[in-house]
Design brief:
Chain lengths: 569, 327, 342
């Protein structure tokens, strides 16, 4: 009895406190309802079971990581008070461990406290070998995650990690509540439908109804750490349809407040914006549309050795040809046609964040057909009877593959035209994205097998640290039958110097030094012309003019600061 | 011969032209003159046979007579009423007096109605009989046409061709008509059944005092049944005569040709069995020849036939012919 | 008839099993991968682990038998448990058919999406029948009249113009050009969470259904009215119609009782055969209006190489098709006395 009286008194006091607070400031839920539309519907709210961007971003409304990236790519503490570094002692001198300390007084939406046990549980949940965790790469080299006390977590790595911010930084690896997901580890993970559809989190919203691949409805988290946030009492996360229709609901009909990732023709988008109901926002990350050159011979006659390092490419192994191919391309025009506001021409495969972006290759921004022709002439590739250059019986005839996508097919057509102007013949091929990017071993058309001379796609990296990304082009990453074609080194590029730079980066913690190494690797790839970057693709989204506080973030979930969103009066 | 009795049906210059539409806008480009000026009378209690090749317009005459078409021109008088221009309710009120038996007993019966309801339907429309009275009436009609009463709840497809035609006849009789058009009622039946149906028609004629227009291409059947016979060619009547006179002494070259093709019942008495083979095809009724309709195929064609239409005239007592040979 | 129905149902079992096997083989052979749509930032070795966790490393026949066990045994048992509370075997831990995308039971997703599918696609079907039958009847009765010509034109348009186009035009007119506070404004996105509780919410439901239903109904109506017209024309020229007229029946009776009833026989069959397509949803229209019914579910499954989802949905469609074929046959037998099944 006594205890409950005290509890009631406390509750009363806190209520008083809240109302007093509300009188001075603004209250949670004051702005009513907000509608978000994602043209790809969310299937699940557990990023560990679905790596899809839409799922990660939908989940980010509910569950949160220890730290996030802001719109400039800087890490910001989220459930902690400060980011551990070597300077503040959070990261061990030998770079093999990192120690996070949770903020005091954090509670889950069900009112129970967030403890280090939850973080440890989450790590073990993902690292369970039978779970099929899709964010496993984030936990690379982690040997143990342990709770030092209720609020302190120590993550130990098997090797020195100069960038130890893989686990629990960014929307891909939020903290799950141990109590809720207890029985869901390993093989049982998929069967926990209720948990996966309605995780308990620390975020500004809680799930009230989840309809897979359709609509999620949410309401404000009553236990959110900032009692004045979020400004919206309820939220609808509608999915489905296509990007154009999604854009229309925000920019023209005003049915929704925020539309995600509007990959539509730039002029259509501008036209919609002129209706005056909404605003287009764009931001740039590291997503680069690029052409990968195959340095090995994709000739089908080679059988099992097709596109393997055993046979160098008959003409693409000549750097002059690769350089000419790059020079012939008008990147400005491609950008304008394909992406408008959502793209900018680039000459780097590593275009951002700013400290990692090299300026050494900017000459490629200007198309130079004459220069390319001169280069090929000089290298001995002379036009034959049909205008196609050849040397020693080898014709410059290229098979150019990419995934099926209207913009990519436009690019293919333009580039084919430019290459024909320098005497290179091009055959175009497009492959369904599910096949092209799917890792089906039996299909000859995957982007890893690269049974073509060149291929085009876009890629990026999570977070802000480029080390793993640049690691794609080390010798050991070359896809081949031996490693079941798994590997990110599509050009089959192998250089001791490059691998050396990579090893050096792995042992360097100083940020400026890491930047220098990353730029050097980027320049090496660019100046060898094994990758031809085309366009740095940004993210384009739209929000209603009445929605305030949107800060487009390409380094983390777009909905990262939804707690700060509010309705303009 | 039933001379002296009054005509029940009087047809005067009946014309039935069907328009032909062609082209994108479906313009009217011409017409099929299926029946092109036909006049005759049918006396009460007699059977007028109407014969001719397929496509000559004889069925159209039958249907036009009962006003199943809106006729193009001419007059039809049945039982003293002119029905040529009636429509809607007025025409419907006339229906009980005149009925029709159709060629295809299968197609002319609604497949989704039972025999009982097919026969009873006209009663529903035109009488105020109670349900019980109607049932009794249907049963009587079925008796009259030789169908077992218990078949009333069956569907048409469960019957044989002959039985179906009996259903058609019972249905036609339901409203006690005076005049029945029999449109090739036996053409679709087995030869063995044909006689039964014809006999039934004759019996019913006796019993109910019916008047028939019997349309057929079967000259022997018409000879058996008809009082008088009209021969049609290409939308017009070529010759109309009492039965015996016509078969003994056909006047019109077309009638002669038709009859020459009929096998004689007594080969020994077949004196002049010389078949007259007609040459060429029947011209299209959309574009009939100038002058006499038959001039393109007539073995006795004359110059005048190609320019002037022969008059319809009585050449002998009760014998009408449209032919220049008899002018 | 009963014997016939039972016999047909028994024969349907091996047919359906065979169909399920064929679907499985086709899906298995399709060069698609459940990890294909994941961001490229997920490394290949993790993808390999994901595939293993989905059971993709097992041989094809094992996976097929597993699906059969889940679908034919576990799902019905689960249904008994859910509906009647009967518990046979392990009720909680039973392995159901689980989608690879949502990691949740496929059957639950289907049940969840059934209402909006039936509301929108089903209603459009009903509307199209109600509109198409009179149009077909009048068009045939007054063949080549201006009404018939107009009907032909509308049907041609409905038939030839794809639903994504009509959908877009309607959206632009009713959602964009008409201001949202105007009474004629219609929402362009269907709210699947909307519940009808009172008059006002019912009105909203009608409003949000208006456009998708119109788009779909126009398309179905075009087909059906043409079919109705053809069937009427077939029957109008039949002898029994002439008989009916000769009987002295009223023209209305002739057309509505004799002709229409007979003409409806094939049309009813076509309508019955079309019912499974309701459940199949209307993939494109659902996408445009965000109805997110079964059609949208299927397309998501196909894009994500979600074999259990696609297999289950396609199989359910197969069952419905077989079932409605049987229903169509039985209806034919009931409507047309000439047809009898032994």
């Amino acid at each position: 009895m006594k205890l409950s009286k005290i509890a009631m008194a406390t509750a009363g006091a806190s209520m008083l406190a809240t109302s007093a607070f509300a009188a001075g400031h603004e209250m949670q839920g004051r702005d009513g309802h907000v509608g978000i539309i994602y043209w790809q519907a969310a299937s699940i709210l557990n990023p560990y079971l679905s790596g899809g961007t839409k799922d990660i971003e939908a989940a980010s409304l509910v569950i949160e990581p220890l730290a996030r990236y802001d719109q400039d790519g800087n890490m910001v503490p989220w459930l902690v008070d400060e980011i551990p570094t070597v300077e503040n002692g959070g990261v061990a001198e030998d770079l093999t461990s990192i120690t996070w300390k949770l903020s005091e007084g954090l509670v889950w939406s069900d009112g129970t406290p967030v403890t280090s046990a939850d973080v440890v549980f989450t790590a073990n949940y993902c690292m369970d070998p039978e779970g099929g965790c899709q964010q496993l790469a984030k936990f690379g080299d982690v040997t143990s995650v342990e709770a030092l006390d209720d609020l302190t977590i120590k993550i130990t790595f098997g090797v020195p990690k100069p960038f130890p911010y893989g686990p629990f930084v960014g929307g891909q690896t939020p903290i799950l509540q141990a109590a809720q997901f207890e029985g869901c580890s390993g093989a049982a993970a998929p069967s926990c439908t209720d948990q996966n559809f309605g995780p308990i989190g620390t975020g500004p919203f809680v799930v009230t109804e989840f309809r897979a691949n359709d609509t999620i409805s949410m309401e404000a988290n009553p236990n959110y750490r900032d009692p004045s946030k979020p400004a919206f009492a309820t939220l609808t996360f509608k999915g489905g349809g296509d990007a154009t229709a999604a854009a229309r609901t925000v920019l023209e009909t005003g049915e929704f407040d925020y539309a995600w990732n509007l990959q539509i023709a730039p002029e259509v988008l501008d036209e919609m914006e002129s209706a005056g109901k909404g605003t287009i926002v764009s931001g740039f990350g590291t997503l680069v549309e690029r052409i990968m050159i195959n340095l090995t011979d994709p000739n089908p006659d080679l059988g099992d050795e097709r596109s393997t390092v055993a046979h160098p490419h008959p003409f693409l192994s000549d750097i002059a040809v690769r350089q000419a191919l790059s020079m012939a391309i008008d990147r400005e025009l491609l950008t304008e046609i394909g992406y408008g506001q959502a793209g900018r021409p680039t000459c780097n495969v590593l275009p951002a964040p700013a400290i990692y972006a090299s300026t050494a290759n900017d000459a490629c921004l200007v198309q130079d057909i004459a220069g390319a022709n001169a280069l090929l002439d000089e290298a001995g590739w002379l036009p034959g009877a049909d205008g196609i250059r050849e040397k020693d019986g080898v014709r410059l005839s290229i098979l150019y593959q990419t995934s099926t996508n209207a913009v990519r097919q436009d690019f293919q057509a333009l580039i084919k035209q430019w290459w024909s102007e320098i005497g290179v013949e091009t055959e175009l091929k497009n492959i369904d994205a599910g096949v092209f990017f799917g890792g089906d071993q039996s299909s000859p058309d995957t982007f890893q097998k690269l049974f073509a001379d060149v291929e085009m796609y876009a890629n990026n990296f999570d977070g802000t640290d480029p080390e793993a990304y640049m690691g794609n082009w080390k010798c050991s990453e070359i896809p081949s039958p031996e490693n079941a074609w798994l590997g990110g080194n599509m050009p089959r590029y192998c250089s001791e110097a490059y691998d050396g730079l990579l090893a050096e980066m792995a042992g360097t913690a100083d940020i400026d030094e890491r930047a220098r190494l990353a730029k050097a690797m980027n320049d090496m790839l660019m100046q060898e012309y094994v990758i031809i970057p085309l366009v740095d693709r940004g993210r384009v989204s739209a929000h209603a003019n009445t929605l305030e506080g949107v800060v487009l973030n390409t380094w983390d979930s777009e909905l990262w600061n939804v707690a700060d969103w509010s309705r303009a009066d | 011969m039933l001379d002296g009795t009054k005509p029940l049906v009087r047809v005067d210059d009946l014309k039935m032209h069907f328009p032909i539409f062609k082209g994108v806008l479906r313009r009217r480009v011409g017409e099929v003159k299926a029946v092109d000026g036909v006049s005759f009378e049918i006396y009460e209690g007699e059977t007028l046979g109407l014969v001719g090749e397929s496509g000559c317009g004889k069925s159209t005459v039958g249907r036009a007579l009962l006003r199943l078409y809106d006729i193009t021109d001419g007059h039809i008088e049945i039982d003293g009423s002119d029905i040529s221009t009636l429509s809607g309710e007025a025409l419907r009120d006339m229906r009980p007096r005149m009925q029709m038996i159709f060629q295809d007993p299968q197609a002319s019966l609604n497949p989704r109605m039972t025999v009982g309801s097919i026969i009873a339907e006209p009663l529903d429309e035109h009488t105020n009989l109670t349900r019980k009275e109607k049932r009794e009436k249907v049963a009587k009609l079925m008796d009259a046409v030789g169908l077992a009463r218990r078949f009333a709840d069956r569907y048409p497809h469960e019957f044989s061709g002959g039985q179906r035609q009996r259903i058609g006849i019972a249905r036609a009789l339901a409203l006690n008509p005076k005049f029945i058009v029999c449109d090739e009622p036996i053409a679709a039946l087995d030869v063995s059944i044909q006689a039964q149906v014809v006999n039934l028609l004759e019996d019913l004629q006796q019993e109910f005092g019916l008047t028939y227009l019997f349309i057929s291409h079967d000259l022997s059947m018409v000879r058996h049944l008809a009082t008088r016979v009209a021969v049609m060619y290409l939308g017009k009547i070529a010759e109309l005569a009492p039965r015996d006179a016509l078969y003994a002494d056909p006047k019109h070259p077309y009638t002669q040709a038709l009859l020459s093709a009929v096998p004689h019942p007594d080969p020994a008495g077949d004196r002049q069995h010389e078949r007259i083979i007609l040459k060429g095809d029947v011209p299209s009724p959309a574009n009939p020849p100038k002058g006499c309709n038959f001039c393109t195929r007539c073995p006795k064609v004359m110059e005048i036939c190609r320019s002037e239409t022969p008059e319809w005239r009585e050449v002998d007592a009760g014998r009408f012919v449209a032919c220049h040979l008899y002018n | 008839m009963l014997n016939y129905t039972i016999r047909r149902l028994i024969f349907a079992i091996p047919t359906l099993l065979f169909i399920s096997f064929i679907i499985f083989i086709i899906l298995d052979m399709a060069p698609n991968d459940p990890t294909g749509n994941l961001p490229l930032t997920i490394p290949p070795e993790v993808r390999q682990k994901i595939r293993e966790s989905l059971g993709l490393d097992a041989p094809m026949y094992i996976r097929y038998l597993l699906w059969c066990n889940q679908f034919f045994i576990n799902e019905p048992l689960n249904m008994l448990h859910q509906w009647f509370g009967w518990c046979i075997g392990d009720c909680e831990g039973r392995l159901r058919v689980e989608s690879w995308i949502t990691r949740s039971p496929v059957v639950d997703s289907i049940v969840e999406r059934m209402p909006q599918t039936l509301w929108v696609v089903g209603m459009s079907y009903v509307v199209s029948i109600l509109v198409a039958v009179p149009i077909g009847v009048i068009s045939a009765y007054k063949q080549y009249s201006w009404f018939d010509q107009a009907g032909t034109l509308v049907s041609m348009i409905g038939f030839a113009v794809p639903t994504f186009f009509t959908g877009l035009v309607l959206q632009i007119v009713f959602s964009t050009m008409i201001p949202s506070d105007h009474w004629a404004w219609l929402p362009s996105k269907y709210n699947t969470l909307h519940e009808v509780t009172d008059w006002q919410s019912f009105v909203y439901q009608m409003r949000q259904m208006a456009m998708p239903v119109t788009v779909l109904a126009l398309y179905n109506m075009a087909q059906l009215s043409r079919f109705m017209r053809a069937s009427m024309l077939d029957n109008l020229s039949q002898d029994y119609v002439r008989t009916a007229r000769a009987k002295g029946l009223r023209e209305r009776t002739v057309v509505l009782v004799h002709v229409l009833r007979n003409s409806l026989i094939p049309v009813v069959t076509v309508i019955a055969l079309g019912v499974p397509t309701i459940f199949g949803g209307a993939i494109i229209t659902e996408q445009i209006f965000g109805v997110n019914g079964l059609g949208a579910l299927l397309i998501i499954g196909i894009q994500g190489a979600d074999i259990p989802l696609v297999q289950t949905l396609t199989f359910i469609f197969a069952v419905l098709i077989v079932l409605f074929n049987l229903i169509a046959d039985i209806l034919y037998g009931l409507l047309d006395p000439r047809i009898r099944y032994e």
